[in-house]
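Protein data:
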Amino acid sequence: MASNVNPTVRRRRLGQELRRLRELKGMTAEEVAERLLVSQSKISRLENGRRSISQRDVRDLCGVYEVEDQRIVDSLMQMAKDSRQQGWWHAFGDIPYSVYIGLETDAESLRTYEPQIITGLLQTRPYAEALIQGALPETSVADIEKRVQVRIRRQERISSDSNPLRLWVVLDEAALRRVVGGRQVMREQLEHVAELSQLPHITVQVLPFDVGAHPGINGQYSILEFADAADSSVVYIEGVTSDLYLEKAHDVQKYTVMYEHLRAQALNVEQSRQLIEDVAKDYAR
């Protein structure tokens, strides 16, 4: 298996193909579940890529859909095999947002709105340590370090020379003013953001307090887009006990329009960088 196989993306692509075959057959997920004596929720999880798909699952589904071309069956079964491989993040153990990491690893671009904190891909190590410790006070030192290591590893996507992630970040001014880890940590963090914002593939805008109510008032979200046209865009909303992934076209479009409004209401790139640098200087006093 090639080392760059992304199991999360393989599951998504395979699930999309299985859904297409079901729809071509004119069957509902409930009908398929009845034929295979499984739950309807299992069929839904297989199709949305949130569950590992075994080669036996693929064989059984292709049988129900009466797929006669053995080449298609073989291709789908190979995708199922690849989807059960482990991504780099599995080396760190149980990561609660591993599905998101898999998507981010393969994404071509990411647009994110953060109302409270500096987004993970732009965080310094001291800021990340203090943030995780504060957000998860009952977490052990070892688990905090593991999460920090994963966060730093994720940042390789924006430092890649060959295929950097196109990142667009809208930060609420509150993220600049919330003191995480102390004033020294905040100064270094904001200087880091200002420096990264000068890279051609990274755009950072700040949504100032005086904007008032705005479309992102309900909280953080991200939009991931992929180079392969077969991979639909995904809206990711982080939760405390579970995360939400939206892939339906009308949902993605709604959040995309919201993001355009946020970008329009935020300070432009130069004004944003100036504000970030000014707040950083305030922390140095």
Summary: Residues 7-25 form the longest helix (19 residues). DSSP finds 13 helices and six strands in the chain.
